[in-house]
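During the no-cost extension, the postdoctoral fellow (Dr. R.K.) reprocessed legacy sequence entries with the updated structure-token encoder. One reprocessed record is reproduced below for audit purposes.
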Amino acid sequence: MDSLPALIDPPQFLALAAALGFASGFRLYAAVFFTGLAGFMGWVELPAGLHVLEHPAVLGASGFMLFVEFFADKIPYVDSVWDAAHTLIRIPAGAALAAGALGADSTAMAWIAALVGGGLAATSHATKMTARAAVNTSPEPFSNVAVSLFEDGWVLFLLWLSATHPAIFTVVLVASVVAAIVLLVVLVKFLQAAVRELRDFFAGRRLPK
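Re-encoded structure tokens follow.
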């Protein structure tokens, strides 16, 4: 029987850990499901710490949540509620997935991976939440669908790139993190300005001249 294609090089392990951490911040269930599916189908041999993702029960649960999230994430305002509810789920899950990718043989490496994975998940999650809040100020629903579909494809692309071209993935990840931070700063200022305008508007209505 042919052996499975293995992720045996340290750069591939590192890239997978980083991809899972970053992707968990905006598409946790997609990251879990498609990573587990890749291992279950024999497309890649996952690190020992991630073998649990191949279990049929985990695939079933993550697949169901992926199905729910796929539609919830495309409905204006429902997407923001969904994101807020997952604030305490995505970040620790990103840390755990990164630790599972790197920490099978070293407790220290597991902690380092968890810190980095959690940090990446926090960055992408905060950017996603803020971006969706800004998009929801638009009166039409199509922008929500477009942004959500982009995120769906981006997760698959990052996971594939981390497994096949870890060096290129590193460049893409660094660029993505920088872009996320810049976008977060810009959008926070935008939302603060929108809140001030609403506050001034309602204050003016309460105190007409």
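The mean pLDDT is 86. The first helix runs from residue 10 to 40. The remaining legacy entries will be reprocessed before the final report is submitted.
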